[in-house]
């Protein structure tokens, strides 16, 4: 269940296969001998990670967080479970860990948005990390969503946003965060329930939890 | 419309990075990996605790000099200063010579092939973290604690035959194969110029920084970083060679002592020796620092500061830095064992075979 403790043999790729023809696991295996091919992994996945991190922390922090994520990944590449051909969940997991150090900043922005309707994270191009300009959000429900996101625990927020923004499956979220599948389900249920409660305009949808007792 | 749809609309206009942005990011990663030096399989850079092997003799060598250095930065009175008796600033050569003298006095006992080098480092980039690793002295295994386990779970990567001498395998920094590194270091010349040349020309020591990235192998900063990488290997390095490495730094053009003391990233006071590199267009200026214990001049950590003059990325990340501090680097008998700590039971150890993937 825990990805990182599996033995990691992978079929060896053809010795001279071009990096772009390898899957992530083969690429990581190749990078043990040829570290420069690790840059290919960056080109493959950094775009998605940057957008995800920027959406949570703002563009100013995204470069550093994603840069560090890949550096940590590079250093841990001997630990990668090469039975997994897609490295993105692994990278999201590392990023979640790095992002946790910026939790206050993330929460501050949700709070500001919830109070003022101005999203500090949606910066105009060219503003720097300390910029106070943001923009008034166009989404009417944005302040309520921000307030709800702020109210979630760190673990619940990771699960919810990896699912909703990074489009990871339950299994991939479990792999990314190193938690059991059942925990992913229960965290996601709890987080969605809180979101729903915060958004009164939604159509009422009965949830599995409401029909359960206890 | 449900809550997930609403959530997916939230900040949905966050734009993905363009190609230029990604290229700049990849370049930054490459620079960092290069600056990471001997890391590779060795995790977060840095290693230290010279103190654990410090001897009274070593500490005494420059006691008078260093006491003043601690209180007065690096401007201290030394015997035989100028004719007017004024204090003069210690030169980088004097500091490095003192470091060399201390290093040469270390016991330098070679670990057993199946003993483990325990390292604890503290490093910062976008975030800060402490990392612990165990490297078996023969280089065939490394170990770490499973971060996802509730109790103690030691994971061992077994590289076995991949690390046999002559195996066609990229060497990721000398720290990954301590025994071989010691043997190779012992064969290096002691004369500073010859030593620097040997480090440049030997692929084993050239390391990632010349195979990966754009810093020319012949540049002073590359020479500086190669030496710093080896200075951090305080346990496997032969003491005389460490001494020669310290002295060689003074022969690298532009390498100088920073006028002010510099704390390492763990907050411990230190003296910094600096190399600067300016290259490319738009210009990238890099400052590489070796941080030394202000009393013993032993290796404490390092820092890389990079400033990009025009990245075409709007004002973001125009400068960044990476630092590491070596908190411990000592010999233990078992993987997963901390100095003076308990031996993890066999049931908590999982060995993973890496020997048949190449």
Descriptive keywords:
heterodimer; A: 214 residues; mainly alpha; Arc Repressor Mutant, subunit A; two-stranded antiparallel sheet; 10 helices; 2 strands; 58% helix; globular; disordered N terminus; disordered C terminus; B: 358 residues; alpha+beta; ten-stranded mixed β-sheet; CU044_5270-like (chain B); CU044_5270 family protein (chain B)
- Characterize the quaternary organization of these chains: heterodimer
Helix proportion of chain A = 55-70%
Distance between the ends of chain B: 52 Å
Count up the domains of chain B: 1
- H/E element sequence of chain B: HHHHEEHEEEEHHHHHEEEEEE
Content-based structural category of chain B = alpha+beta
Number of strands of chain A: 2
Describe the structure.
The complex is a heterodimer of chains A (214) and B (358). Chain A is built from ten helices and two strands. Chain A is mainly alpha-helical. Chain A has a domain at 152-199: Winged helix-like DNA-binding domain superfamily/Winged helix DNA-binding domain (Arc Repressor Mutant, subunit A, Orthogonal Bundle), CATH 1.10.10. Chain A has a two-stranded antiparallel sheet. In chain A, α4 (88-100) crosses α8. The longest helix of chain B has 17 residues, at 19-35. The model of chain B is unreliable at 37-83 and 167-171 (pLDDT under 50). The relative contact order of chain B is 0.19. Chain B has one domain. Chain B is globular. With 358 residues, chain B is an alpha+beta fold. Chain B contains ten helices and twelve strands. In chain B, the strands form two sheets. Chain B has a ten-stranded mixed sheet with strand order 7-8-9-10-11-3-4-5-6-12, covered by helices on one side. A two-stranded antiparallel sheet of chain B has the order 1-2. Chain B has helices at 3-9, 19-35, 56-61, 63-71, 92-104, 178-186, 192-201, 203-211, 220-231, 239-249; strands at 75-76, 88-89, 116-124, 128-136, 141-145, 154-158, 256-257, 271-279, 284-292, 299-308, 319-332, 349-353. The interface between A and B is large, with 72 and 62 residues.
